[in-house]
Amino acid sequence: MAMVLEALSCARIAFVIAVMVTTISASASEAAPGEAVTQYPCQGHVQDITQVYPFCDKRLPIDERVRDFVSHLSLEEKEKLLVNTNSETTSVGLPAYEWWGEALHGVAKSPAVHFGKGPIKGATSFPQPILTAASFNKMLFKKIAQVISTEARAMYNENQAGLTYWAPNINIFRDPRWGRGQETPGEDPYLTSIYAEYFVRGMQEDEFEDMHGRQNSSVKASDKDPEKLKVSACCKHFTAYDLDQWYKVDRFDFDAKVTKQDLLDTYNPPFQSCVEKGKASALMCSYNRINGVPSCADYSFLTELVRGTWGFDGYIVSDCDAVQVMYANSKFAENPQQAIAYALQAGMDLNCGDTASKFTLEAVKEGLLDISFIDAALQNSFKVLFRLGYFDGNPEDPESSKYGKLDRNDVCKQEHQDLALEAAVQGIVLLKNDKDTLPFSRLNIRKLAVLGPNADDTIATMLGNYAGEPCNYFTPYKALASYVETTTYHPGCVNGTFCDGNNWIEYIQRASEMAVEADAVILVMGLGQVQERESFDRTSLRLPGKQEELVKTISRVARGPVILILMNGGPLDINFAKYDSRIKSILWIGYPGQAGGEALAQIIFGERNPGGKLPVSWYPEFYTRIPMTEMSMRPDIHIGYPGRSYRFYTGEPIYKFGDGLSYTKFTFLFESAPLTLISSSKSRLFCSWLLERRNPTSTSTTKMTSDADHIPFDENMEIEFEVRVKNEGPVFGSSVMLLYHAHPYAGLFGKPIKQLVGFERVDLESMEEQKVVFKVDLCRQLSFAGVDGTWFFPEEGMHTFSLGDYEVTHPMQITYAKN
Ligand SMILES: *[C@@H]1O[C@H](CO)[C@@H](O)[C@H](O)[C@H]1NC(C)=O
Ligand SMILES: *[C@@H]1O[C@H](CO)[C@@H](O)[C@H](O)[C@H]1NC(C)=O
């Protein structure tokens, strides 16, 4: 106590004494602020805590509470609160708080999350986002995040986790070698934008919608307070970050040379959507530099673009030690004081790391930093904790939190685990199915061989990185063995997915013997965290070690059909198997999470019909000749550079973005869609103004039919495409419809070959049909990115819309009236 008093100013001594007087009348077990800190701030230990700390008063507007909170802090206390690990601040009754929680595909192990240190031993583990994205099901993205946030709240109440989570990872999966591509929704800016929006809303909002997006009518509009957060989600890593460690180039040193055009239509749109539509309350700036400037020191990005143009309301956190990287690695700053001054002035609010807690005051003393930047940073970060209800007292008190009742019984609930299974089923992609070999009938398979290094995986391989402890898990072998009485297993490889070592021939022989005896063979191959992970990019797209050797040998000797299962995040060159007629079917299962084995077994035995589509292009091995450091999305034929992603890549991929088969057959038809749009030049001006300002406005929908010839277009218009989809095949299935747009002269002059502008997933019984309406925002989605980094209004001429792989196309003429 004496030590505490010594550290306080005179005014504060008087203040503490006043508080102590108040507490004397309170019961003996209650603590006074400044003396001991309770588990939650503003916990009602003092009779009238709001008189001492106005920021504890729930009736006051949040901004006022935040300002009041910061005003109680000394400069020394402020410095210590600029980092992710906050120890307690006794003068304001603030307990220790760890900001760093992870929840990429389930509440995950991280500094703020403690499995085992309490009653909760595990949480629901969903597939890695690359597989979930393959479902092309936006309500699934949201539902998963709702379950994660519910479990996170339960863990918070059990004192095993915090309220701030650094997910989703929405960097564009630009290069197939990237070790963290598995964490993302893939290579397309539109899909990634939708994923960002729905995931963040699922994390942060109350649950007012059901699985199909229907509003819950029993919830009053007045209950929806956009300021309140269930948990806080974070859009990361802003921006153009998608290289970890490739040969000698690492993410800390990497200076990404990015064109304004690529930033505008590829790297930044997911972040814009995450902020504008998802209303994310946090954003993380990345390690790398962009055109020479570290992302966390870039005022034009953090303050002008994100906070200014996009209207971000939340805190900006540095990637962990990204401030240190500025002086220790990239030498952008001369010393730590300068680095932290740059970051805070640019708009970073919270430093994951410890540079800020050690050097901020020095930066102030040296005249490098004004105190106002510190206050602004604390206001931005602590406002989020206020919005989370952290300062509303004990959450178990129904007056202070609607989530206070969630506890250990709300984690790993059956319906949560069912959703993990559903997500894996919906994401799995059928890449090849010659002669309709799949699904298998249980009656015909009396003896099954399940072979390969990923057939009976470790948890780490099934779940992928940024994982927690799963509720439980079944490997493919364990799940398949429950379908067929006689199931044999052999890894076929020495040393897991590395698949190499002295006895490799013997391993292949042992596996081959099982293949010879079985009615069918399931080969579970691919990668694991040992090949692709954070801080580790690949250098080859081929299956590692002797894996190809194993697949080829087995397919040669097997008596029954051979099915190849690929467990991997980043793309593989498996051309050898694609064209090998002895390999009947190929399924991609990503890193499928705790229920991945069961999902695979249900698909193989026809209980479920696969409907997923690849969210990323699978390139041939020669693609690795391109330097991974080349950030350009657009091809350059003069130097033989083929470009990146389905939007620009000029070569032939192994499998394309959007590839994926079904056990049934769907047909599509454009039922009604606009043929001609005519605009006055006034609208054209408005559209370009809108695009420059990126002003969020409400959109009006104009219904059009293909009969109408000349449709005048409105500045602010959504155009509608009515599509009829029919299941013409024998079984129930899910059709994923991808609507693409192509500009006039698509693929030329820096324009994408095509661009996804809408997707829907519908379930149809055999012979059932359904109409699906796509709405496309004329100004925002049909405009194109110029080399100067601004949007150009939709071009005059013939635009082409198509469904899937050009299965059906629809032309649309845009004309601007001359006056
Ligand atoms: C609708 O909201 C009410 C009140 O929050 C809740 O009890 C009910 O379960 C919700 N209904 C559905 C279908 O989600
Ligand atoms: C497995 O392979 C990796 C990569 O070649 C190697 O580093 C490791 O030592 C091997 N482990 C064993 C047990 O052979």
Give a quick precis of the structure.
The protein folds into four domains: 53 residues, no CATH class; 345 residues, Glycoside hydrolase, family 3, N-terminal domain (TIM Barrel, Alpha-Beta Barrel), CATH 3.20.20; 221 residues, 3-Layer(aba) Sandwich (Rossmann fold); 151 residues, Immunoglobulins (Immunoglobulin-like), CATH 2.60.40.10. The chain is 29% helix and 17% strand.
Describe the secondary structure blueprint for this structure.
Layout: H1 2-7, H2 10-24, H3 49-52, H4 62-71, H5 75-80, E1 85-86, E2 97-98, H6 129-133, H7 138-157, H8 189-204, E3 234-238, E4 245-246, E5 249-250, E6 255-256, H9 260-267, H10 269-276, E7 282-285, E8 289-290, E9 293-294, H11 299-309, E10 315-318, H12 322-328, H13 336-346, H14 355-365, H15 371-387, H16 414-427, E11 429-433, E12 447-451, H17 459-463, H18 476-481, E13 486-490, H19 504-517, E14 520-526, H20 547-557, E15 562-567, H21 575-578, E16 583-588, H22 596-604, H23 645-648, E17 666-672, E18 676-679, H24 681-693, E19 700-701, E20 711-712, E21 717-727, E22 733-742, E23 755-764, E24 769-777, H25 778-781, E25 784-785, E26 791-792, E27 797-803, E28 808-816
Parallel strand pairs: 3-7, 6-8, 7-10, 12-13, 12-14, 14-15, 15-16, 18-20, 18-28, 19-21
Antiparallel strand pairs: 1-2, 4-5, 8-9, 11-16, 17-21, 21-24, 22-23, 22-27, 25-26, 27-28
The structure holds 2-acetamido-2-deoxy-beta-D-glucopyranose (NAG) (2 copies).
